Amino acid sequence: MLEEELRDLVEKTQRLQAEQQTVEVKSSHEGCPERLYDTLSSFSNQDEGGVLLFGLDEKQSFRAVGVYDVQDLQKRVVDQCEQMEPVVRPLFTAGEIDGVAVVSAEIPSIDLAERPCFYRGKGRVKGAYRRVGERDQPMTEYEIYSYEAFRKKYQDDIRIVPDADADSLDQSLLADYLQKLKANKPNLAMLSDDKICRLMSVEKDDGVTLAAQILLGLYPQAFMPQLCIIAIAVPGVEIGETDEEGARFTDNKRIEGTIPSMLNEALSFVRSNMKVTTIVDAETGQRRDVTEYPLVALREVLLNALVHRDYSIHTEGKPIQLTMYSDRVEVASPGGLYGRLRVDQLGHTQPDTRNPVLATAMEVLGLTENRYSGIPTVRKQMEAAGLPEPEFIDTQSSFKVTLRKAADGAKAAREIKREAKNQRALCETVAEEDLLAFCSVPRTREELADTLGLGSKSYAISRYVMPLVKKGKLQMTDPDHPKSKNQRFVRISSRE
Protein backbone atom coordinates (compact mmCIF):
# COMPACT_ATOMS: atom_id res chain seq x y z
CA MET A 1 0.00 0.00 0.00
CA LEU A 2 1.37 3.42 -0.92
CA GLU A 3 1.22 6.27 1.60
CA GLU A 4 -1.35 8.03 -0.56
CA GLU A 5 -3.51 4.89 -0.50
CA LEU A 6 -3.18 4.84 3.28
CA ARG A 7 -4.45 8.43 3.43
CA ASP A 8 -7.41 7.52 1.21
CA LEU A 9 -8.26 4.54 3.43
CA VAL A 10 -8.17 6.69 6.56
CA GLU A 11 -10.37 9.32 4.89
CA LYS A 12 -12.88 6.70 3.78
CA THR A 13 -13.04 5.16 7.26
CA GLN A 14 -13.61 8.57 8.84
CA ARG A 15 -16.25 9.42 6.27
CA LEU A 16 -18.14 6.15 6.80
CA GLN A 17 -17.63 6.28 10.56
CA ALA A 18 -17.35 2.51 10.57
CA GLU A 19 -15.04 -0.43 10.25
CA GLN A 20 -15.65 -2.73 7.29
CA GLN A 21 -15.45 -6.30 6.09
CA THR A 22 -11.80 -5.75 5.24
CA VAL A 23 -10.82 -2.97 7.66
CA GLU A 24 -10.23 -3.18 11.42
CA VAL A 25 -9.30 -0.04 13.38
CA LYS A 26 -7.07 -0.06 16.49
CA SER A 27 -6.19 3.05 18.49
CA SER A 28 -2.65 1.96 19.56
CA HIS A 29 -1.96 5.41 21.02
CA GLU A 30 -0.71 3.97 24.30
CA GLY A 31 0.64 0.63 23.11
CA CYS A 32 0.18 -2.31 20.74
CA PRO A 33 -3.08 -4.23 21.12
CA GLU A 34 -2.31 -7.50 22.88
CA ARG A 35 -4.84 -9.75 21.09
CA LEU A 36 -4.96 -9.39 17.34
CA TYR A 37 -5.27 -13.14 16.80
CA ASP A 38 -9.00 -13.15 16.03
CA THR A 39 -8.67 -10.51 13.32
CA LEU A 40 -5.48 -12.02 11.90
CA SER A 41 -7.37 -15.31 11.56
CA SER A 42 -10.55 -13.85 10.04
CA PHE A 43 -8.71 -11.68 7.50
CA SER A 44 -6.48 -14.58 6.47
CA ASN A 45 -9.51 -16.82 5.98
CA GLN A 46 -11.37 -14.56 3.54
CA ASP A 47 -10.51 -14.19 -0.12
CA GLU A 48 -10.07 -10.41 0.13
CA GLY A 49 -7.69 -10.49 3.09
CA GLY A 50 -7.89 -7.32 5.17
CA VAL A 51 -6.14 -4.28 6.65
CA LEU A 52 -5.40 -3.49 10.28
CA LEU A 53 -5.41 0.30 10.66
CA PHE A 54 -3.48 1.57 13.70
CA GLY A 55 -3.68 5.13 15.00
CA LEU A 56 -7.41 5.93 14.71
CA ASP A 57 -9.69 6.07 17.74
CA GLU A 58 -13.14 4.64 17.09
CA LYS A 59 -14.44 6.20 20.31
CA GLN A 60 -13.46 9.64 19.03
CA SER A 61 -15.26 9.33 15.69
CA PHE A 62 -12.21 7.67 14.14
CA ARG A 63 -10.02 10.70 14.76
CA ALA A 64 -6.33 10.24 13.98
CA VAL A 65 -4.61 9.97 17.39
CA GLY A 66 -1.37 8.36 16.19
CA VAL A 67 0.50 5.27 17.37
CA TYR A 68 2.82 5.19 20.35
CA ASP A 69 5.90 4.00 18.39
CA VAL A 70 5.91 3.00 14.71
CA GLN A 71 8.92 0.70 14.97
CA ASP A 72 7.87 -1.13 18.13
CA LEU A 73 4.30 -1.49 16.91
CA GLN A 74 5.38 -3.31 13.77
CA LYS A 75 7.65 -5.64 15.78
CA ARG A 76 4.90 -6.58 18.21
CA VAL A 77 2.36 -7.15 15.43
CA VAL A 78 4.83 -9.47 13.67
CA ASP A 79 5.33 -11.37 16.94
CA GLN A 80 1.59 -12.08 17.06
CA CYS A 81 1.51 -13.01 13.36
CA GLU A 82 4.15 -15.66 14.03
CA GLN A 83 1.86 -17.34 16.54
CA MET A 84 -0.65 -18.08 13.80
CA GLU A 85 -0.87 -21.34 11.84
CA PRO A 86 0.08 -20.89 9.08
CA VAL A 87 2.26 -17.90 9.92
CA VAL A 88 0.82 -14.58 8.71
CA ARG A 89 3.12 -12.24 6.76
CA PRO A 90 1.82 -8.65 7.05
CA LEU A 91 2.82 -5.76 4.81
CA PHE A 92 3.24 -2.46 6.69
CA THR A 93 2.79 1.13 5.54
CA ALA A 94 3.34 4.19 7.72
CA GLY A 95 2.28 7.77 7.05
CA GLU A 96 1.60 11.07 8.79
CA ILE A 97 -1.98 12.29 9.02
CA ASP A 98 -3.00 15.43 10.93
CA GLY A 99 0.49 15.59 12.40
CA VAL A 100 0.49 12.08 13.87
CA ALA A 101 1.77 8.68 12.66
CA VAL A 102 -0.73 6.15 11.31
CA VAL A 103 0.24 2.58 10.37
CA SER A 104 -1.51 -0.03 8.24
CA ALA A 105 -0.83 -3.77 8.22
CA GLU A 106 -2.14 -5.57 5.16
CA ILE A 107 -3.06 -9.16 6.01
CA PRO A 108 -3.00 -11.37 2.90
CA SER A 109 -5.50 -14.11 2.21
CA ILE A 110 -4.05 -17.58 2.55
CA ASP A 111 -4.62 -20.32 0.00
CA LEU A 112 -7.80 -22.33 0.42
CA ALA A 113 -5.79 -25.52 0.88
CA GLU A 114 -4.17 -24.00 4.00
CA ARG A 115 -7.32 -22.71 5.66
CA PRO A 116 -8.37 -22.20 8.31
CA CYS A 117 -5.68 -19.93 9.66
CA PHE A 118 -5.87 -20.13 13.47
CA TYR A 119 -4.12 -19.04 16.65
CA ARG A 120 -1.91 -21.89 17.81
CA GLY A 121 -2.47 -21.00 21.46
CA LYS A 122 -6.14 -22.01 21.13
CA GLY A 123 -5.88 -24.71 18.48
CA ARG A 124 -7.70 -25.20 15.20
CA VAL A 125 -11.20 -25.63 16.64
CA LYS A 126 -11.23 -22.67 19.05
CA GLY A 127 -8.68 -20.42 17.39
CA ALA A 128 -10.17 -20.10 13.87
CA TYR A 129 -12.31 -17.06 13.03
CA ARG A 130 -14.28 -15.64 10.13
CA ARG A 131 -15.14 -12.03 9.33
CA VAL A 132 -18.80 -10.99 9.42
CA GLY A 133 -19.19 -7.31 8.67
CA GLU A 134 -16.93 -5.54 11.16
CA ARG A 135 -16.84 -8.44 13.62
CA ASP A 136 -14.67 -11.52 14.04
CA GLN A 137 -16.73 -14.62 14.84
CA PRO A 138 -15.49 -18.08 15.83
CA MET A 139 -15.79 -20.58 13.01
CA THR A 140 -18.30 -23.34 13.46
CA GLU A 141 -17.21 -26.95 13.53
CA TYR A 142 -18.76 -27.40 10.10
CA GLU A 143 -16.93 -24.40 8.60
CA ILE A 144 -13.64 -25.83 9.81
CA TYR A 145 -14.58 -29.25 8.48
CA SER A 146 -15.46 -27.84 5.04
CA TYR A 147 -11.90 -26.60 4.60
CA GLU A 148 -10.48 -29.90 5.79
CA ALA A 149 -12.80 -31.84 3.49
CA PHE A 150 -11.49 -29.94 0.47
CA ARG A 151 -7.86 -30.12 1.57
CA LYS A 152 -7.97 -33.88 2.21
CA LYS A 153 -10.45 -34.60 -0.62
CA TYR A 154 -12.99 -36.38 1.56
CA GLN A 155 -15.64 -38.21 -0.47
CA ASP A 156 -18.74 -38.07 1.68
CA ASP A 157 -20.86 -39.35 -1.17
CA ILE A 158 -19.30 -42.80 -0.79
CA ARG A 159 -19.28 -43.05 2.98
CA ILE A 160 -21.02 -46.13 4.34
CA VAL A 161 -24.66 -45.74 5.36
CA PRO A 162 -25.05 -47.33 8.82
CA ASP A 163 -27.43 -50.31 8.96
CA ALA A 164 -27.98 -50.34 5.19
CA ASP A 165 -27.23 -53.50 3.24
CA ALA A 166 -27.68 -54.78 -0.31
CA ASP A 167 -31.32 -55.69 0.41
CA SER A 168 -32.10 -52.00 0.97
CA LEU A 169 -31.45 -51.28 -2.72
CA ASP A 170 -34.12 -51.49 -5.41
CA GLN A 171 -32.87 -54.41 -7.46
CA SER A 172 -34.59 -53.23 -10.64
CA LEU A 173 -32.90 -49.81 -10.35
CA LEU A 174 -29.57 -51.47 -9.60
CA ALA A 175 -29.92 -53.79 -12.62
CA ASP A 176 -30.72 -50.84 -14.87
CA TYR A 177 -27.70 -48.92 -13.55
CA LEU A 178 -25.37 -51.89 -14.09
CA GLN A 179 -26.72 -52.41 -17.60
CA LYS A 180 -26.06 -48.78 -18.51
CA LEU A 181 -22.59 -48.99 -17.02
CA LYS A 182 -21.74 -52.03 -19.11
CA ALA A 183 -23.15 -50.45 -22.26
CA ASN A 184 -21.05 -47.30 -21.89
CA LYS A 185 -17.93 -48.86 -20.39
CA PRO A 186 -16.85 -51.99 -22.31
CA ASN A 187 -14.09 -52.80 -19.83
CA LEU A 188 -16.67 -53.19 -17.09
CA ALA A 189 -18.84 -55.49 -19.18
CA MET A 190 -16.32 -58.29 -18.72
CA LEU A 191 -16.57 -58.16 -14.93
CA SER A 192 -19.10 -59.70 -12.55
CA ASP A 193 -21.85 -57.54 -11.09
CA ASP A 194 -20.34 -57.84 -7.61
CA LYS A 195 -16.98 -56.62 -8.89
CA ILE A 196 -18.61 -53.71 -10.71
CA CYS A 197 -20.52 -52.69 -7.57
CA ARG A 198 -17.27 -52.51 -5.64
CA LEU A 199 -15.35 -50.69 -8.35
CA MET A 200 -18.10 -48.15 -8.90
CA SER A 201 -18.63 -47.56 -5.17
CA VAL A 202 -22.10 -49.03 -4.93
CA GLU A 203 -20.72 -51.19 -2.14
CA LYS A 204 -17.74 -50.55 0.09
CA ASP A 205 -16.30 -52.45 3.04
CA ASP A 206 -19.30 -54.81 3.03
CA GLY A 207 -21.69 -51.88 3.27
CA VAL A 208 -23.80 -49.75 0.93
CA THR A 209 -22.55 -46.26 0.08
CA LEU A 210 -24.57 -43.09 0.40
CA ALA A 211 -24.47 -42.50 -3.37
CA ALA A 212 -25.96 -45.94 -4.00
CA GLN A 213 -28.63 -45.46 -1.34
CA ILE A 214 -29.74 -42.02 -2.52
CA LEU A 215 -29.83 -43.12 -6.16
CA LEU A 216 -30.92 -46.76 -5.99
CA GLY A 217 -32.46 -47.25 -2.55
CA LEU A 218 -35.92 -48.62 -1.87
CA TYR A 219 -36.47 -45.86 0.69
CA PRO A 220 -33.30 -43.84 1.40
CA GLN A 221 -34.95 -41.76 4.13
CA ALA A 222 -35.31 -44.86 6.31
CA PHE A 223 -31.59 -44.44 7.02
CA MET A 224 -31.17 -40.68 6.45
CA PRO A 225 -34.53 -39.05 7.27
CA GLN A 226 -33.47 -35.47 6.50
CA LEU A 227 -31.88 -36.12 3.11
CA CYS A 228 -35.07 -34.91 1.48
CA ILE A 229 -36.68 -31.70 0.19
CA ILE A 230 -39.00 -29.60 2.33
CA ALA A 231 -41.21 -27.72 -0.11
CA ILE A 232 -43.55 -24.93 0.92
CA ALA A 233 -45.57 -22.27 -0.87
CA VAL A 234 -46.36 -19.10 1.08
CA PRO A 235 -48.97 -16.47 0.16
CA GLY A 236 -46.68 -13.45 0.53
CA VAL A 237 -43.08 -12.33 0.16
CA GLU A 238 -42.02 -13.44 3.65
CA ILE A 239 -42.56 -16.53 5.76
CA GLY A 240 -45.18 -15.70 8.35
CA GLU A 241 -47.52 -13.81 6.04
CA THR A 242 -50.96 -15.37 5.74
CA ASP A 243 -53.70 -15.48 3.16
CA GLU A 244 -57.26 -14.21 3.62
CA GLU A 245 -58.19 -17.32 5.59
CA GLY A 246 -55.19 -17.05 7.89
CA ALA A 247 -53.19 -19.91 6.34
CA ARG A 248 -49.40 -19.55 6.51
CA PHE A 249 -48.83 -22.03 3.67
CA THR A 250 -50.81 -22.51 0.50
CA ASP A 251 -49.00 -25.81 0.03
CA ASN A 252 -46.58 -27.79 2.18
CA LYS A 253 -44.91 -31.06 1.30
CA ARG A 254 -42.07 -33.30 2.40
CA ILE A 255 -40.51 -34.81 -0.73
CA GLU A 256 -38.68 -38.10 -0.27
CA GLY A 257 -37.27 -40.98 -2.29
CA THR A 258 -34.27 -41.29 -4.57
CA ILE A 259 -32.73 -38.27 -6.27
CA PRO A 260 -34.59 -38.91 -9.57
CA SER A 261 -37.95 -39.28 -7.82
CA MET A 262 -37.36 -36.23 -5.60
CA LEU A 263 -36.42 -34.19 -8.67
CA ASN A 264 -39.62 -35.13 -10.50
CA GLU A 265 -41.83 -34.58 -7.45
CA ALA A 266 -40.24 -31.21 -6.70
CA LEU A 267 -40.88 -30.07 -10.27
CA SER A 268 -44.50 -31.18 -9.95
CA PHE A 269 -44.80 -29.19 -6.72
CA VAL A 270 -43.43 -26.06 -8.39
CA ARG A 271 -45.64 -26.41 -11.42
CA SER A 272 -48.77 -26.88 -9.33
CA ASN A 273 -48.01 -23.75 -7.33
CA MET A 274 -47.32 -21.26 -10.10
CA LYS A 275 -49.48 -19.68 -12.73
CA VAL A 276 -49.48 -21.01 -16.27
CA THR A 277 -50.48 -18.72 -19.14
CA THR A 278 -51.73 -20.16 -22.42
CA ILE A 279 -50.62 -18.27 -25.52
CA VAL A 280 -50.81 -18.95 -29.22
CA ASP A 281 -47.70 -19.67 -31.27
CA ALA A 282 -47.62 -17.28 -34.22
CA GLU A 283 -45.87 -19.79 -36.49
CA THR A 284 -47.82 -22.95 -35.79
CA GLY A 285 -51.12 -21.52 -34.61
CA GLN A 286 -50.96 -23.97 -31.70
CA ARG A 287 -51.54 -23.07 -28.10
CA ARG A 288 -48.70 -23.48 -25.63
CA ASP A 289 -48.30 -23.01 -21.90
CA VAL A 290 -45.92 -20.41 -20.50
CA THR A 291 -45.04 -20.91 -16.84
CA GLU A 292 -44.14 -18.08 -14.44
CA TYR A 293 -40.63 -19.53 -14.21
CA PRO A 294 -38.95 -21.62 -16.92
CA LEU A 295 -39.16 -25.27 -15.89
CA VAL A 296 -35.80 -26.05 -17.49
CA ALA A 297 -34.13 -23.50 -15.22
CA LEU A 298 -35.94 -24.84 -12.16
CA ARG A 299 -34.89 -28.38 -13.02
CA GLU A 300 -31.23 -27.35 -13.20
CA VAL A 301 -31.42 -25.51 -9.89
CA LEU A 302 -33.05 -28.46 -8.13
CA LEU A 303 -30.70 -30.95 -9.77
CA ASN A 304 -27.65 -28.96 -8.66
CA ALA A 305 -29.00 -28.84 -5.11
CA LEU A 306 -29.55 -32.62 -5.03
CA VAL A 307 -26.24 -33.59 -6.60
CA HIS A 308 -23.88 -30.97 -5.18
CA ARG A 309 -25.20 -30.47 -1.65
CA ASP A 310 -22.96 -31.46 1.25
CA TYR A 311 -23.64 -35.08 2.24
CA SER A 312 -21.30 -35.15 5.25
CA ILE A 313 -22.38 -36.17 8.75
CA HIS A 314 -22.35 -32.46 9.64
CA THR A 315 -25.26 -31.69 7.30
CA GLU A 316 -27.16 -34.98 7.05
CA GLY A 317 -29.76 -33.56 9.43
CA LYS A 318 -30.50 -30.65 7.09
CA PRO A 319 -32.91 -31.01 4.16
CA ILE A 320 -32.94 -28.99 0.97
CA GLN A 321 -35.41 -26.10 1.29
CA LEU A 322 -37.69 -25.25 -1.65
CA THR A 323 -39.72 -22.12 -0.91
CA MET A 324 -42.17 -20.49 -3.28
CA TYR A 325 -43.07 -16.89 -2.45
CA SER A 326 -45.50 -14.67 -4.32
CA ASP A 327 -42.59 -12.94 -6.09
CA ARG A 328 -39.79 -15.54 -6.20
CA VAL A 329 -38.63 -19.13 -5.79
CA GLU A 330 -35.73 -20.01 -3.48
CA VAL A 331 -33.79 -23.27 -3.34
CA ALA A 332 -31.33 -23.55 -0.44
CA SER A 333 -29.04 -26.55 -0.02
CA PRO A 334 -26.73 -27.49 2.87
CA GLY A 335 -23.07 -26.68 2.26
CA GLY A 336 -21.63 -23.65 0.52
CA LEU A 337 -19.72 -23.59 -2.75
CA TYR A 338 -17.07 -26.28 -2.77
CA GLY A 339 -13.37 -25.64 -3.17
CA ARG A 340 -11.97 -22.52 -4.77
CA LEU A 341 -15.12 -21.58 -6.67
CA ARG A 342 -16.60 -18.14 -5.95
CA VAL A 343 -20.06 -16.86 -6.75
CA ASP A 344 -18.76 -14.53 -9.45
CA GLN A 345 -17.14 -17.52 -11.20
CA LEU A 346 -20.32 -19.60 -11.42
CA GLY A 347 -20.89 -20.73 -14.98
CA HIS A 348 -17.55 -19.32 -16.12
CA THR A 349 -15.01 -21.57 -14.38
CA GLN A 350 -14.88 -25.34 -14.14
CA PRO A 351 -15.59 -26.08 -10.47
CA ASP A 352 -14.18 -28.67 -8.12
CA THR A 353 -16.69 -31.48 -7.64
CA ARG A 354 -17.84 -32.20 -4.10
CA ASN A 355 -19.56 -35.53 -4.91
CA PRO A 356 -17.71 -37.00 -7.93
CA VAL A 357 -19.09 -40.54 -7.65
CA LEU A 358 -22.67 -39.33 -7.34
CA ALA A 359 -22.24 -36.89 -10.23
CA THR A 360 -20.77 -39.61 -12.46
CA ALA A 361 -23.55 -42.05 -11.59
CA MET A 362 -26.15 -39.41 -12.49
CA GLU A 363 -24.46 -39.00 -15.86
CA VAL A 364 -24.55 -42.77 -16.43
CA LEU A 365 -28.27 -42.78 -15.65
CA GLY A 366 -28.79 -40.02 -18.21
CA LEU A 367 -30.10 -37.55 -15.64
CA THR A 368 -27.32 -35.00 -16.06
CA GLU A 369 -24.65 -34.20 -18.61
CA ASN A 370 -22.02 -33.42 -15.95
CA ARG A 371 -20.51 -30.82 -18.30
CA TYR A 372 -20.85 -27.81 -16.00
CA SER A 373 -23.62 -26.36 -18.18
CA GLY A 374 -26.25 -26.05 -15.43
CA ILE A 375 -25.67 -22.44 -14.35
CA PRO A 376 -25.31 -21.11 -17.93
CA THR A 377 -28.57 -22.90 -18.78
CA VAL A 378 -30.36 -21.28 -15.84
CA ARG A 379 -29.13 -17.83 -16.90
CA LYS A 380 -30.14 -18.31 -20.54
CA GLN A 381 -33.58 -19.64 -19.64
CA MET A 382 -34.30 -16.71 -17.33
CA GLU A 383 -33.12 -14.23 -19.95
CA ALA A 384 -35.22 -15.86 -22.67
CA ALA A 385 -38.27 -15.62 -20.40
CA GLY A 386 -37.64 -11.92 -19.80
CA LEU A 387 -36.96 -12.51 -16.10
CA PRO A 388 -34.26 -11.05 -13.84
CA GLU A 389 -30.82 -12.66 -13.52
CA PRO A 390 -30.76 -15.59 -11.07
CA GLU A 391 -29.28 -14.69 -7.69
CA PHE A 392 -26.69 -16.83 -5.91
CA ILE A 393 -25.77 -16.50 -2.23
CA ASP A 394 -22.95 -18.54 -0.66
CA THR A 395 -22.58 -18.50 3.13
CA GLN A 396 -20.08 -21.40 3.34
CA SER A 397 -22.62 -23.40 5.34
CA SER A 398 -25.35 -23.12 2.69
CA PHE A 399 -25.93 -22.16 -0.92
CA LYS A 400 -29.12 -20.45 -2.10
CA VAL A 401 -30.45 -19.78 -5.58
CA THR A 402 -33.26 -17.28 -6.11
CA LEU A 403 -35.36 -16.99 -9.26
CA ARG A 404 -37.52 -13.87 -9.33
CA LYS A 405 -40.52 -12.73 -11.27
CA ALA A 406 -40.17 -9.51 -13.23
CA ALA A 407 -40.63 -6.50 -10.97
CA ASP A 408 -43.72 -4.23 -11.14
CA GLY A 409 -45.63 -6.51 -13.47
CA ALA A 410 -43.13 -5.98 -16.28
CA LYS A 411 -43.18 -9.65 -17.18
CA ALA A 412 -46.98 -9.71 -17.29
CA ALA A 413 -46.97 -6.68 -19.55
CA ARG A 414 -44.42 -8.31 -21.86
CA GLU A 415 -46.45 -11.52 -21.99
CA ILE A 416 -49.62 -9.63 -22.84
CA LYS A 417 -47.80 -7.72 -25.54
CA ARG A 418 -46.21 -10.88 -26.90
CA GLU A 419 -49.53 -12.72 -26.84
CA ALA A 420 -51.29 -9.89 -28.67
CA LYS A 421 -48.56 -9.89 -31.29
CA ASN A 422 -48.84 -13.64 -31.73
CA GLN A 423 -52.60 -13.44 -31.97
CA ARG A 424 -52.48 -10.74 -34.63
CA ALA A 425 -49.94 -12.70 -36.61
CA LEU A 426 -52.04 -15.82 -36.37
CA CYS A 427 -55.30 -14.16 -37.25
CA GLU A 428 -53.81 -12.48 -40.25
CA THR A 429 -53.02 -15.94 -41.61
CA VAL A 430 -56.52 -17.26 -41.09
CA ALA A 431 -58.11 -17.35 -44.52
CA GLU A 432 -61.57 -15.86 -44.81
CA GLU A 433 -62.81 -18.98 -46.52
CA ASP A 434 -61.64 -21.12 -43.57
CA LEU A 435 -63.75 -19.05 -41.20
CA LEU A 436 -66.73 -19.18 -43.53
CA ALA A 437 -66.32 -22.94 -43.85
CA PHE A 438 -66.29 -23.24 -40.08
CA CYS A 439 -69.60 -21.36 -39.97
CA SER A 440 -71.35 -23.76 -42.33
CA VAL A 441 -73.34 -24.55 -39.20
CA PRO A 442 -74.29 -21.90 -36.62
CA ARG A 443 -71.42 -21.06 -34.25
CA THR A 444 -71.38 -19.37 -30.85
CA ARG A 445 -69.09 -16.50 -29.87
CA GLU A 446 -67.06 -18.93 -27.76
CA GLU A 447 -66.57 -21.33 -30.67
CA LEU A 448 -65.48 -18.55 -33.00
CA ALA A 449 -63.01 -17.07 -30.49
CA ASP A 450 -61.63 -20.53 -29.85
CA THR A 451 -61.06 -21.38 -33.49
CA LEU A 452 -59.36 -18.02 -33.98
CA GLY A 453 -57.13 -18.73 -30.97
CA LEU A 454 -58.30 -15.58 -29.20
CA GLY A 455 -58.94 -15.20 -25.49
CA SER A 456 -61.34 -12.28 -26.00
CA LYS A 457 -64.75 -13.13 -27.49
CA SER A 458 -65.65 -9.49 -28.05
CA TYR A 459 -62.42 -8.85 -29.94
CA ALA A 460 -62.89 -11.95 -32.10
CA ILE A 461 -66.43 -10.92 -33.06
CA SER A 462 -65.71 -7.21 -33.68
CA ARG A 463 -62.43 -7.76 -35.52
CA TYR A 464 -63.14 -10.83 -37.66
CA VAL A 465 -66.80 -11.86 -37.58
CA MET A 466 -68.78 -8.62 -37.90
CA PRO A 467 -66.84 -7.49 -41.01
CA LEU A 468 -68.09 -10.69 -42.70
CA VAL A 469 -71.62 -9.94 -41.51
CA LYS A 470 -71.40 -6.49 -43.12
CA LYS A 471 -70.10 -8.06 -46.30
CA GLY A 472 -73.17 -10.30 -46.42
CA LYS A 473 -71.15 -13.48 -45.99
CA LEU A 474 -72.26 -14.28 -42.45
CA GLN A 475 -75.54 -13.66 -40.69
CA MET A 476 -76.80 -13.68 -37.12
CA THR A 477 -79.41 -16.26 -36.19
CA ASP A 478 -81.16 -13.61 -34.04
CA PRO A 479 -80.52 -10.26 -35.79
CA ASP A 480 -83.13 -8.47 -33.68
CA HIS A 481 -81.11 -9.17 -30.55
CA PRO A 482 -77.47 -8.86 -31.61
CA LYS A 483 -76.12 -9.09 -28.02
CA SER A 484 -78.17 -12.13 -27.07
CA LYS A 485 -76.20 -14.80 -25.22
CA ASN A 486 -77.84 -17.34 -27.54
CA GLN A 487 -76.61 -15.56 -30.64
CA ARG A 488 -75.11 -17.70 -33.39
CA PHE A 489 -73.29 -16.84 -36.61
CA VAL A 490 -73.82 -18.86 -39.77
CA ARG A 491 -72.60 -18.68 -43.34
CA ILE A 492 -75.00 -17.29 -45.98
CA SER A 493 -75.13 -19.83 -48.75
CA SER A 494 -74.51 -18.68 -52.33
CA ARG A 495 -78.10 -19.71 -53.25
CA GLU A 496 -79.41 -17.03 -50.88
UniProtKB/TrEMBL annotation:
InterPro entries associated with the record: Fic-like_C (IPR049514), RecG_C_sf (IPR038475), Schlafen_AlbA_2_dom (IPR007421), Schlafen_AlbA_2_dom_sf (IPR038461)
Q: Start and end of every Filamentation induced by cAMP protein Fic-like C-terminal domain?
A: 442-489
> This protein's superkingdom?
Bacteria
Which is a Pfam family this sequence falls into? Answer: Fic-like_C
Q: Where are the transmembrane segments?
A: none
Q: Where is this region: Disordered?
A: 473-496
- For the Schlafen AlbA-2 domain, which residue ranges apply? 19-140
Listed name of the protein: ATP-dependent DNA helicase RecG
